[in-house]
Amino acid sequence: MWAEESVFYQIYPLGFCGAPMENDGVQVSRIGKIGQWADHIRAVGANAVYLSPVFESDTHGYDTRDYRKVDCRLGSNEDLAQVCRTLHEKDIRVVLDGVFNHVGRGFWAFRDVQEKKWDSPYKDWFHISFDGNSNYNDGFWYEGWEGHFELVKLNLRNPAVVDYLLDCVRFWVEQFDIDGLRLDVAYCLDHDFLRRLRGFVQGLKPDFFLLGETLHGDYKQWVNDQMLHSCTNYECYKGLYSSLNSMNLFEIVHSLKRQFGSEPWALYQGMHLLSFVDNHDVTRAASILNEPRHLPLLYGLMFGMPGIPCLYYGSEWGAQGVKQPGSDSSLRPCFERPEWNGLTDRIAAMARAHRESKALCWGDFHELLLTNRQTVFQRRTAEERVLVAVNADAQPYTAHFDAGCGLAVDLLTGQTHDFGGGSELAPYSVYFWKCER
């Protein structure tokens, strides 16, 4: 699967393109801006793009009105098709957001129910009771997603709904030649629907990638041979930043051993979960870390650990953004043009090293050294061995551990490293040492 050797770049198009927050019904071609960033996306080391919702919606994209029409605030279907062609020409894969758990109140089938009530042929597309009323005074009660009644939950046990959604996926593949889907709130989706979707997309494209948004619980519920290929690794997302903020690297290493270690009780050996340090729903990495000099280390841990790394647009140069109660607009800004600084240089080097290293893409995980402020761990395949070393302290540290080789090359700098006599780790440093035989 191509995704397992990829680095993703996430864009939230409505914010990225400067679209108005509310759907004003005015079509403006804005989405072409994504294609204009293709060279930057490649330069920062990514070879796959995940686009948050692009289809017609009421407001933020996750309240869909029409699955077959690009949001008028972004442009036309042809505009999106051109963006996908541009990205593919740059050898960048395209993954769209599949929002299948719920729709917006402006969704055409729900509007039909509002108008015709019992007489609507779509009343069973949703979880509706005509014995109650909604807080919108619709004359019937319906289930909303987690109490958000602007998001109307779809009935994925209804074969007509499933057939409709799968036909929309076919349409996206035919019109935009997409390479995969990220499934919004996958932890809420009916498991039979996920199985049906997996078989369907494999028939369309054998290497079609299915990624699910999951928060907590056993990820194997969703990631297996019948359902999803991958899911979001929220357990390690939290551990990445909080282990640095508390200067307790035991937290993230414990999570990595629990998930990917060599012990028989490790949960996800061989699985490729999506690794990230921020996204469109959480405070940006540059705003959540207590020590700004830890930012490259945070990315070093992400690119060094097992998983599929994902960058969120703007964070590669250290853009800030704090999640606010009731609004995510500060997390989803419009940048006029990409920026580039020292942090971007380091992230690009890490992304390139990850993509080009079989050990970093496929290797197992084994801890070699661990203190509150330093860690060294090994990623290994039959052909290659890479040691990832991190010093989160303001002081240099001499690390003594069994490297298993005398010499190594740092994949980030190209410098040769001799393990004899201990390894000196500079303050606030990260290394990717490829062992030479």
Brief summary of the model shown:
This protein is of the alpha/beta class.
Shape verdict: elongated
Indicate the mean pLDDT.
97
Give the strand order of the largest sheet, numbering strands 1, 2, ... along the chain.
13-12-11-5-2-1-15-14
Percent helix, as a range, is 25-40%
Please provide the count of β strands: 23
The chain-level structural class is alpha/beta
Biggest β-sheet strands, sense, barrel: 8 strands, parallel
- Tally of contiguous helical segments: 13
End-to-end span in angstroms? 29 Å
Q: In percent, how much strand structure appears in the residues?
A: 15-25%
Low-confidence stretches: none
Keywords:
437 residues; alpha/beta; 13 helices
Structure report:
An eight-stranded parallel sheet has the order 13-12-11-5-2-1-15-14. Helices cover 29% and strands 22% of the residues. The chain is of the alpha/beta class and 437 residues long. It has helices at 13-16, 32-36, 38-43, 77-89, 108-116, 159-176, 191-204, 234-245, 250-260, 285-288, 295-304, 342-356, 358-362, and strands at residues 8-11, 48-51, 55-57, 64-70, 93-98, 102-104, 128-129, 141-142, 144-145, 148-153, 180-183, 209-212, 230-231, 274-276, 308-312, 364-370, 374-380, 385-391, 397-399, 407-410, 416-418, 423-425, 429-435.
